Every structure is written in structure tokens, then in C-alpha cells.
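Hey,

The postdoc asked me to send both predictions to you directly instead of through the lab channel. I've kept everything plain text so nothing gets mangled by the mail client. Protein one:
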Amino acid sequence: MDQYKEYDFIAENIFYPIYEDIAAAILKRTGITKGEMLDIGCGGGHMGFAVMKLAPSFKGTFIDIRPDAINLTLNRAISLGFENRCSAFLGNVDHLSFKDNSFDLVISRGSMPFWENQLTAFKEIYRILSPGGKAYIGGGLGNAKFQARIKEQMESMGKNTFQKSRKDSKALPTQDYIDLFSSLGCTYEIFENNGEGRWFLFVKGEK
């Protein structure tokens, strides 16, 4: 099994219960349940599809920098019956190929630590949000119970994913993101704890 197929296997079989839990939090906290959704760094599409399952009025767009991720997402869309509600493209968060004001909801789980230019990425996300649109960006495992179970399963497979991801993360201290949100003039909330992880919710103006 190559590295990316292994990652997708882990997402599908070990991480999978977290996606519905996080999707429910996204919908509750943003209050956005329809329109155009973008999932950045989608991997195999698990996070975006979980949101689309709970909110059937969404149309989903998925982007990732890896062609194999896009192929997995498109195949999974067919297996879920979502092929008419979604599209998937190669894309880099540093330079998104979408017009201004394109999306009502932008989400990303777990890809932020890989973004080379954090501030440019967040500015791009802000640009493509529609007025009143919201972004929910961050990483975590839903809650402490999921985190403990997943850690145990990963260790039983000889994987040290959590330690490696923290070491290699390109994410910035929380205050740097707060300074950026203030400079953009947008309202925001931060959800940060050991069980849930760290998530940024920010809003582009008001309709």
C-alpha cells in the first residue's frame, strides 16, 4: 500500500467517526446549511462529504494539491451518490483559482499545518468568501474520547502520527491569526482545547 492510499485507509477506517461529529459542530457554529461549500486540502473528501450528508442543500467543491486525492474524492463522490452535487480540482490554498465572493462556507480540517504561507492562505480564503460567508479552519479529532481511541489504534499500527505532525507543523501561534483577522476587519471565534483541537471561525462582513 503506497503512502497516500494508506492515509486514505486510515481516514476511512480509523478516523472516520470524527467527521460527522466535526461536521455537526461546523453547521451549528456557522449556522450555514446551504449554498456553495469549499473543502480545502480535502484528501479523500471525508470532511466535506460529512458536511454534505448533514446538509443536503450544499453544493461542494473540493481542492487538494495531490492528483491522487482528487481521484479518491471523485470516486468517493460517485459511491456516495454525490457526483451531481460536487466537483474536485487540483489547487493550492496560497493562490486559489476562484473568483471573489464565491463560497458561502469554506472548511478545512488537518491541512492548515502543511500550508507554506499561512497568512497568504487565510487572506485567500477571506477573498473567496461571499459577504456574510464563513470559514471554519483548523484541526482536531472531535473530542477527547475520539482522540484517545484513535491514538491507541494508531500506536497499535506502529504509527506516531501525532508527534510527527506537531513537529513538522507550519501553523502559527494563535495570536498571529488574531492579528490577521483584526487587520482584515472580520469577526471571528476561536475554539481551542485538548480534546477538540484548534479551530478558527471567521466571517466576511454581513449580508
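Protein two:
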Amino acid sequence: MPRAQREERMLDAALQNFGERGFRSASMDDIARDSGITKPLLYQYFESKEGLYQACAERERARLFDGLEAASMAAPPRERLRVFVEGYFAYLEEHRGARWLLYGDVSVTATNEMHERNAGVVIRLVRATADELHRSPDATTLTVVAHALIGAGYHVGRWWVEQSEVSRDAAIKQFIPVAAGILAPAFTS
């Protein structure tokens, strides 16, 4: 089996175990059994249970943000924020209840690194949208609005997945004006 395919099987099994049991209760023995790959190979690829968990969180982060970036860039410039926010909440709703959602037990350092990568996606989207709307935000403005949006989305998302009485549509309706306010400085320059 090629390395990439073997790694995907390990990550799939780990994601299922972490999602069902949480980081602390999931075992490398169960992950190895469920993936059909030996425990020593898990350690060879990921070094530790923490490394495996971070790899799972990063893979899901990348899937989410790569998908959001592609869908948003395919939309007209004035629709991108709505497409991004709707896609984000749809992902959260689909995975609601998964203990790894929004980096659960990932270290602060790894979470900060993931937030940086997420901010990079937002910077690219805002820069492209600003260019198409003939705006020219400077690098500092782009960075500030990207980090503010990522921070707000992260915290609102963590809150929302615990609020089963708040519908996705209600959360989106409330969050879009907040996000638009955060992004406003990039489009007024």
C-alpha cells in the first residue's frame, strides 16, 4: 500500500476514535486495529498520540478551509462572505458532536499555527475580492481583518456547536453582519 494511502487510513481511523471517545480515551491500540495498520507504524508516521491527533485536526482544518476558499472564490465578489460563512456553519453542523471539532485537544502552539494557516486563506480571499472591487487594503489591514475574522469565527463556532437550540440559519444571520463589520476596513481603503 502506498504511504499516502496508508496515512489516510490511519487518519480516518484516528478521526473516528477521537471523535467518538475524545483524545484522552482514544487508544493507539484501537486506532491501529481499526486502521488495519500496526501500532509501531502509527508511531513511525506520527511519533505520538498527540502528533496523530494534530495531524487529524490539521487534515480537517485543511479540508474545511480549502473547501471554503474554493467555494468562495467561485462566487461573485459580493457573495463571497455569505458563501464562506454558510459553508463554515454547514461544516460545523455536519460534524456537531465530534470531540475533535475546532481543534479540541490540540496544543496551543498547534492551534495558533492552524489559525495562521486559516488567516492565510482569508487574506487571499479578501485580497482577491478587494482587487476585483478596485480597493487596495494594505498588508496590515489584511492581516488584522483576517485574524479578527478567524478569531471571531472560531469562538462563535465553538459556542454554537454547543447550542442545539440555535439553528444554523439563526447563527448565520447573526454572524454575517459581525463578519462584514470586521472586514469593512479592507474595503473602505
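Summary for protein two, as requested: The mean pLDDT is 92.

Thanks,
C.
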